[in-house]
Amino acid sequence: MVATQPSDLHEEHEHEHVHLPQHRHHFETEEQQREAASFGMWLFLLTEIMFFGGLFMAYLLYRNWYNPAFVAASHTLSIKLGALNTAILITSGFCMALAVWAAETRRRKALVNLLGLTNLFGIAFLVVKYFEYAEKWQDSHVPGLKFSIADFGKLGVDMAQKTQVYYSLYFAMTGMHALHMIIGIVLIFWYMVRANRGEFTEGYVAPIENFGLYWHFVDIVWIFLFPLLYLIDLGAK
C-alpha cells in the first residue's frame, strides 16, 4: 500500500478549492454561491412585494371611500390596450422562462435570441403604455399637470374632483411598474452581451435564473394591476 505524501494531500486540497472565474472567493463552492444569490433575490422580491402591496392597499381603501369616482374614472381606460399589454407580458414571461432553460441546457445562441425576444416584448409593452399615457394627457386626466373634471360632471363637483385620486394611483402604480420594466430591459441588454460571450452556457446560470424571477415578478404585478384598474368596475355604472 502506497503512503500518501503530504505534498499529494496539499495538491488534492488545492484541487478541491479551485475558483472558477465566476466563483467568488468568499464562497466555498459554486452551489453555495448560487444558493446565496437565490436567497438574496427572494429577499429583494419580498421588499418589492411590500412596496407594491402598500400601493394596492391604498387603492383598495380609496376605492371604498370614493367608489363612484373610481367607477367613472376606470371606465375611461382602454380595456383593449390593457388586454394587449397583458398578452404581451405573458408572452415575454414565456420567452424568459425559455431563456432560463436555454442557459441551463447550455444553448448559447438560443439564450441570446430568447433574451432578445423577451426584450422586444418588454419594449412593445412600454410603447403601448406610452399611447395610453398620451391619451390621458389629451383627455386632461393627468392630476397636477393637466386635469379637467368636465367628463365627470354627472358625479357632482366634489365627487368629480375625487377622480384625481384614481388617476394619481393609476399613474403611480403603472408608472412604478413601467420603471421596473425599463430597469429589466436595460439589464437584459447587458445579459445579452454577456450571454453572447458564452458566460451563462458553461454551467454558470444563476444570474439568468435570478433575473428570470425578477421578470416574472414584474409580470405578476401587472396581472394584478390589469383587473384592479381596468376590469373591477366593468359592470358598474
Model description:
This protein has a single domain (49-231), classed as Up-down Bundle (Four Helix Bundle (Hemerythrin (Met), subunit A)). It has a two-stranded antiparallel sheet with strand order 1-2. Helix content is 75%, strand content 2%. By secondary structure, the chain is mostly helical. Strand 1 and strand 2 (146-147) form a beta hairpin. The chain is elongated, with a radius of gyration of 24 Å. The chain has helices at residues 6-16, 30-65, 67-74, 79-104, 108-138, 157-161, 163-196, 206-231, and strands at residues 141-142, 146-147.
Could you outline the blueprint of secondary structure elements for this entry?
Blueprint: H1 6-16, H2 30-65, H3 67-74, H4 79-104, H5 108-138, E1 141-142, E2 146-147, H6 157-161, H7 163-196, H8 206-231
Which descriptors apply to this entry?
237 residues; Four Helix Bundle (Hemerythrin (Met), subunit A); two-stranded antiparallel ribbon
